[in-house]
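Encode chain A's predicted structure.
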Amino acid sequence: MSISSSIKSIQDIMRKDAGVDGDAQRLGQMSWLLFLKVFDAQEEELELEQDDYKAPIDEKYLWRNWAADAEGITGDKLLEFVNDDLFYHLKNMVVNAEKNPRGLVVKAAFSDAFNYMKNGTLLRQVINKLNEIDFTDSTERHLFGDIYEQILKDLQSAGNAGEFYTPRAITKFIVKVTDPKLGESIMDPACGTGGFLACSFDHVKENYVITSADHETLQKQIHGVEKKQLPHLLCTTNMMLHGIEVPVQIKHGNTLNKPLSSWDDEIDVIVTNPPFGGTEEDGIEKNFPSEMQTRETADLFLQLIIEVLAAPVNGKQGGRAAVVLPDGTLFGEGVKTKIKKMLTEECNLHTIVRLPNGVFNPYTGIKTNILFFTKGKPTKDVWFYEHPYPEGVKNYSKTKPMKFEEFQTELDWWGEESDGFAARVENEHAWKVSIEDVIARNFNLDIKNPHQDEVIAHDPQELLASYQQQQQEIAVLRNQLKNILGDALKSSTGSEA
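Encoded structure for chain A:
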């Protein structure tokens, strides 16, 4: 049975349960079940590898001992065990971070988890469906991303807060050209379910890991922070599937909820698609310099990334980043202009890949870009590369998503940062703009391809897609304006008082 069919079957079972209300709760229900199943699969491997193995949680709560048997406990007995025993114990474990770090991971995973199902027979059916997936099989471990992607497609509100699944083609391309190496700290400050981190882990493992000591080093390189409980739980599960035995570096919290001046981290590689189009809660902007304060999430994350990237030391190159950002960041003014000025003064913003419409369908039609920059040297020139649709494609969709192979032209053109990308040449998709021209444009980076005339579309579907994208962008700008006016009104009221 395909992953899509398995997930549909599980969702159909959950729809019969009176306690589960909507796709969001179905995702939450499946998340903690997946976590325990994957955790136990990893425990079985560790048990075989370690002579002095000791289970990090009471063995009665391991998946194999209460869930693996299709004919095991069910109905009210299963519900009673889950609600009154399993959840209570895992939430209230007393664990020592040094002596039992994996136990700490379990406790953190269950801190905000809930069992929504009220029918124990239906819960047993869901568990049995999950048991059809064998995560100890290396070929099936990579299906985890497919599971989450399939669920996310059913969440109609997934894009409302700027959160959506980053296509694997983009994740793989970004990691490929950023090239994280063994021993370098790798971070995603808005890691979601861990797509960038998992891809980075695989990249380092495939290209640089040789010994078991190398593998130990790699496990400690990966760092992520996720604000919301469900994606954090899925990210923790994802990291375990990729071989990180103790994913304590995956923090549950808001990366922005800390004064920028108090960050002393030095990160070598940051790869991320931070939420955009949304706004942060009141007070978060106070963690940033007064002249750079805003409540627009993407702007705050860009400031944070510039701050925490490692500075060059003793001839070593500074930290490097690849960040997915909307068109609004490129042409935006006010605080956005100040951030772009800071970016080009403190970092070498060497490349902007302009992505076409529809990359993030069905979640959003907002046009996006990938900014590549390295800390430590100011920008002299910005290269732009306009990613074209493949031949015969006018827009991406759920059934026709972007593919990694499309980026081969960029990979062939990319070159080496160490020689200043000397091999790069302008072509119909690539062009170079000097920092002087950027400054003259007041740091407006929304620069059109000079090698292509503007194409006027007459196709009804293209016109409709363009109209919908414009409406989404207008809505984002309207929300930002409301927040600015609201903050100004609060400030004025406070002054009068």
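The chain has 18 helices and nine strands.
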